[in-house]
Design a protein that fits this description.
The structure is a single chain. By secondary structure, the chain is mainly α. It has 4 domains: about 80-225, HUPs (Rossmann fold, 3-Layer(aba) Sandwich), CATH 3.40.50.620; about 240-310, Glutamyl-tRNA Synthetase, domain 2; about 315-365, Orthogonal Bundle (Helicase, Ruva Protein, domain 3); about 365-465, Arc Repressor Mutant, subunit A. The protein is built from 19 helices and 12 strands. The strands form 5 sheets. A 3-stranded parallel β-sheet has the order 1-2-3, covered by helices on one side. A 3-stranded antiparallel β-sheet has the order 4-5-8. It has a two-stranded antiparallel sheet with strand order 6-7. Helix 1 links the parallel strand 1 (about 5) and strand 2. Helix 1 (about 15-30) packs across helix 9. The structure holds glutamic acid. Glutamic acid binds near residues 8, 10, 183 and 201.
């Protein structure tokens, strides 16, 4: 049978890092084996599921370019099918009506807790013959004997005794089916061959296997991925900063960087750190997934992201940088200029937000000259060279790198001063000390009008401040 995996998020929030990692591993497994990948939205919890969340999940999947071959399927559209299976289980004598009151169940739980037993349903209604007319839930009749065994593709052999498992509710009083039932019906109907999911579901798996068997269905393979911890060792949560995939986009991470980071969260291939999408597909094996939880490490993510910022084509990054500039109220319209800014600055940035921050000076005049280098360079003896250069730059026929370079060289020669005596104050006038590339490139990218204005501002600054 050809491989078919799925990602089955509940739309009760954004696509978070843990979910994205699960989606990635499922997707990789399908792609590696030339199989299919299904997206299923598990929206049966009507109170907590929202369209906004569905949209956020789809947006996150699209940003990471985790494409699916089937779906998205919505569980809320499949209630008839779930009811059909529940009715079949009842007919087979594998499920039954239960009318135990909340009080009875609460008392039972209390008694069990007092006796230091694991709270579980005691099977009271198994033989009670509850009428369909009275309020009831449907429970799955879990086998009482033997055990459930399966070989988890990550965790290895697992065996759970049936007397650990109680009779699970599969249909609520309001008629809605529950997760453990819907997931089994869907994974069967959608012909899923490997169920790859977070290990928070591992306790559900033996119950689900019992349901497959009750229906006479073949059981898929399971792979439970260890959870992700924050760098403090606690389960990754909002407390640790960004956890939503789209928040990473907002913070200036590239999908390639985040994907590469995610693939290494719990999976390894020797000591290799960098993986292109193709390499991930080629090399991914569930057998190389760690059993132990993996810890989130923002430094490593930043390192990877810096790598992909350096690798990307400047033309591809230009429109992304443009968006991040908008966040700084900078309207940068010339994509060719933006591509050159990317090239000039990217060695110094590990996110696009940083890249925009350290490149803002191309568009914004310095707000005064308060930097240390400004204090050194903007002194009285700089006025003459600056004035000379300003005049020459204003007259330049073409505002291009080469003529700018020549113009500065000519000014230095005419003034008979060292290059730095002009270059330093000129650069500082334009940048106030922000890290910048070659002087001619810096001036070219800042543009003539802004360069001249900034030189004027710097001269005024010196006049007002130099003693
Ligand atoms: N809907 C479940 C969740 O979001 C996943 C269920 C599964 O993968 O089996 O946690």
């Amino acid at each position: 049978m050809s491989v078919k995996t799925r990602f089955a998020p509940s739309p009760t929030g954004y696509l978070h890092v843990g979910g994205a990692r699960t989606a990635l591993f499922s997707w990789l497994y399908a792609r590696k084996h030339g199989g299919q990948f299904v997206l299923r939205i598990e929206d049966t919890d009507l109170e907590r599921s929202t369209q906004e969340s569905v949209d956020a999940i789809l947006e996150g999947m699209q940003w990471l370019d985790l494409d699916y071959d089937e779906g998205p399927f919505y569980q809320t559209k499949r209630f008839d099918r779930y009811n059909e299976v529940i009715d079949q289980l009842i007919e087979k004598g594998m499920a039954y009506r239960c009318s135990c009151s909340k009080e009875r169940l609460d008392n039972l739980r209390e008694e069990q807790m007092a006796a230091k037993q694991k709270p579980r349903y005691d099977g009271h209604c198994r033989h009670a013959d509850v009428s369909a007319d009275e309020p009831h839930v449907i429970r799955f009749l879990n086998p009482t004997e033997g055990s459930v065994k399966f070989k988890d593709l990550v965790k290895g052999d697992i065996e759970v005794s049936n007397n650990e498992l109680d009779d699970l509710i599969i249909r609520r009083t309001d008629g809605s089916p529950t997760y453990n039932l819907t997931v089994v019906v869907d994974d069967h109907d959608m012909e899923i061959t490997q169920v790859i999911r977070g290990d928070d579901h591992i306790n559900n798996t033996p119950r689900q296997i019992n349901m497959y068997q009750a229906m006479g269905w073949s059981v898929p393979e399971f792979a439970h991925l260890p959870m992700i911890l924050g760098d403090d060792g606690a389960r990754l949560s909002k407390r640790h900063g960004a956890v939503s995939v789209m928040q990473y986009a907002d913070e200036g991470y590239l999908p390639e960087g985040l994907l590469n980071y995610l693939v290494r969260l719990g999976w390894s291939h020797g000591d290799q750190e960098l993986f292109s999408r193709e390499e991930m597909i080629q090399l991914f094996e569930l057998t190389n997934v760690n059993r132990a939880p993996s810890a989130f490490n923002t430094e490593k993510l930043n390192w990877l992201n810096a790598h992909y910022i350096k690798e990307a084509s400047p033309a591809d990054l230009a429109p992304l940088l443009q968006k991040h500039f908008q966040q700084l109220d900078i309207e940068a319209t010339d994509l060719a200029v933006l591509a050159q800014i990317v090239e000039a600055q990217r060695e110094r940035a590990s996110t696009l937000v940083e890249l925009a921050d350290i490149s803002a000076f191309y568009f914004n005049d310095p707000e005064g000259y308060s930097s240390k280098p400004a204090k050194k360079a903007l002194v009285e003896e700089a006025i003459a060279p600056l004035t000379h250069a300003r005049k020459a730059l204003a007259q330049l026929a073409a505002w291009e790198r080469e003529p700018i370079h020549q113009c500065v060289a000519d000014a230095v020669a005419a003034l008979e001063i060292g290059f730095g005596k002009l270059a330093m104050p000129l650069r500082i006038s334009v940048t106030d000390g922000a890290p910048s590339p070659d002087l001619d490139l810096t001036l070219f990218l800042v543009g003539r009008e802004a360069t001249l204005r900034r030189i004027d501002n710097a001269i005024v600054f010196i006049q007002e401040n130099a003693s």
